[in-house]
Every structure is written in C-alpha cells, then in structure tokens.
C-alpha cells in the first residue's frame, strides 16, 4: 500500500499512526550519535507520489486518526508543499486529529512563527525535537550545530506559533561524573538539560540513553575508547538529578524509549516527587531495581 524507502523511525507515541514519508533522510544528518539516516540522501518527495499513497490508504478504509510525517526533518520542506500535503490528508481522513513530525533545530531556524502557525492551523500540531543536552560543551561534542541558547530560541518560536513540543534528552551524553577532569560530567549535563527544558516548557519531555551505533562517529569514538558509557545505576543517578531540577507544570514525562534501563512516566510537576522518590529507592538499593535487561534494549 505504501512503499517505504529504507528503515523507518518514529517516536514511541506514534505507534498507531499512519507513517508517511514526506521527506527521505535528514537535511542536517551531522549529529555524531545518530545513525538513522546515514544511508539516505535527503530529498523531498513529489507531492503526486504522496497523494497516490494517501488515496490508497483512503480507499482501503483504514481508520486514520494520526499521521506522522517521516523521515527525520519534514519541517524543512517548503511551506507550500507541506500546506498542500496537510490539505490532502485532512480531505482524505475526516477523523484526523493530529499530524506530527520530527523538527531539527536547523529546520526551526528557517521556519518563521507565521509559517509554523499557518501549518498548525492545517493540522501539523506537534514537533518532536531532539534537544539531547542543555550543556554547550556536550552539544558541541555531539555536533548538534547549535548551543543551548539557540535551542531555547527556536523552540520558543514553535511555542509562540501554538505548536506542541515533545523534547528528548540524551542520558549519558555528558560522560562519567569525574570532578576536575575537564569534562562536563553526568550531573552537569543533567542540570543544564533541566535548565533548558525549564526555559522551553514543552508539552512532553522524554529521555533516551546515548548508545554508540555502528556507522556513526560516536561508534568510532567508542572503538577508540573515547566514550564513557554509563552503567544503569549511573544513568539512574543522572535521571534523578534531571527530574529533581525540572520546574515545569503540565509537562508529560516518559522514559519509555527502548534504550532506557528504567521505564518511568508521569505528569510534572504533579508526579515529580513520586518519580524522584522511585529513583532514590533505586539508588539506595540497586539490587531491587527493575532495570531493563540488555537484550530488551534497542533503538
């Protein structure tokens, strides 16, 4: 019904969405840790191809309530293309309640508030943004192409346009906690990341665990012994520091991505005390912690 190119990736919350490859690959594709789109050349697909796929799904009478626009950076496509695609989706699926996409900092830089607001009115209401860290040194090592202040600025544009933001933080990206060794360290990364999330005040925040993936610069760094992969207990300590430092209200938190060792969830700030207490219990008695086994983890 739909011919996908390459491996598809989508956020956990889009499991029951129609995945439509509006673009192929990622327009930036320089993050050291990300191997999702390194085998693809970025391009925007012809609207006619997408219209044909939408019609096939409509003709099959499949119940479509949510659509996720893949691949990694659909928001960077031209506004008139995205507007036309959203109009086709709304016409084909009368029960459609949400369209979402990944949004890189670079695509948020080029989209104006007015453009994002116009697309939101046509149904593109949610962006998934990989913040990874609020620590500038960590962001530079990951080659995100922006610093924390710029992340806060561009995410602020989306919020001003009325778009819901779902943000991701990369646990372990700051390395091991070693005072005085000239590296950011786990806890500094956690505190800076919380400060960035506080500045953005997103609707959703989630955590992933930094994992070297074959074919990425991070994997090569790990092979040279230049990457410190944190233990489950160290990651729990980092997550505790991050959650304790958050000052947001009405924000939904999840650590349900398959890379996490601990699956936690709640609404902040209402459930913040419960989540921190759960992590305190893990840190106090690691033998009773229900860490996800390595064979169940993934990306």
Short description:
This protein is 37% helix and 16% strand. The protein is an alpha/beta fold and 299 residues long.
Task: Note the main attributes of this structure.
alpha/beta; two-stranded antiparallel sheet
Protein model, in words:
- It is a single chain.
- With 299 residues, the chain is of the alpha/beta class.
- The chain has one domain: TIM Barrel.
- Helix content is 37%, strand content 16%.
- An 8-stranded mixed beta sheet has the order 1-4-5-6-7-8-9-10. Strands 2-3 form a two-stranded antiparallel sheet.
- It is globular, with a radius of gyration of 19 Å.
- The model has no long low-confidence stretch (mean pLDDT 92).
Please report the first level of CATH classification, the CATH class: Alpha Beta
CATH architecture: Alpha-Beta Barrel
Instruction: Give the spatial strand order of the biggest sheet.
Output: 1-4-5-6-7-8-9-10
Instruction: Give the overall silhouette.
Output: globular
In total, the number of strands is 10
The biggest sheet, with number of strands, parallel, antiparallel or mixed sense and barrel status, is: 8 strands, mixed
Global structural class: alpha/beta
Number of helices: 10
- Provide the residue-averaged pLDDT: 92
Explain the layout of strands and helices.
Blueprint: E1 18-21, E2 23-24, E3 43-44, H1 47-59, E4 66-70, H2 79-92, E5 98-102, H3 105-110, H4 113-121, E6 124-132, H5 136-141, H6 148-160, E7 164-171, H7 186-200, E8 204-209, H8 217-223, H9 232-245, E9 251-254, E10 265-268, H10 272-284
Parallel strand pairs: 1-4, 4-5, 5-6, 6-7, 7-8, 8-9
Antiparallel strand pairs: 2-3, 9-10
Helix pairs in contact: 1-2, 6-7, 7-9, 9-10
